[in-house]
Amino acid sequence: MILHRGLIRPITKARETIVASMVLTFGLAIVVENVMLWIWKADPRVLKPSYSGTAVFIGEVGLPIAQLVGFGLAAVGILLLYLFLNHTHTGKAVQATWQEKEGAALMGINLQKVSEIAFGLAIAAAGMGGVAMAMMYNL
Amino acid sequence: MRVINIAHAGFGVLAAYIAYSLLEKTGLDPLLSLLISLPSFFFGG
Question: Do A39 and B17 make contact, defined as CB atoms within 8 angstroms?
Fold first, then answer.
């Protein structure tokens, strides 16, 4: 919500919002990546929770628990997003806004607030996906 | 809306590094670290 208010909202008034947002978030990605490089350096790392290195066996097939947890996390994330978008008032407002912006505004939906929530949710979902990926691959 | 976010992958890796740091420094499970990182990402994003 803070990033959206500070960076994204000002460019929504631009003539080419899509191109402006791509350039802006490309720059943001470079900043985020370099801050990570500065803090954690470029050495490869492995996320090793207590259950890494253990596996569940179904017959002769071994399923690493860390990868199962990563898969489960991704599945839960998708389910939560689905439930939010289809079974909450705010989720339906998000859907209405992307389907028909003017119509949604006429129905009293606060478009700025909905955009902020959607952007915040997208960043949080990316974070959840990143942790799920870290369970399966090196950092 | 009509905003394309190319920085998604960067934020994904950032959450993974936060989970890694919390695991190394405090022994917190990566799943539990999401309880800290997800609200921060939602309000910061």
Answer: yes
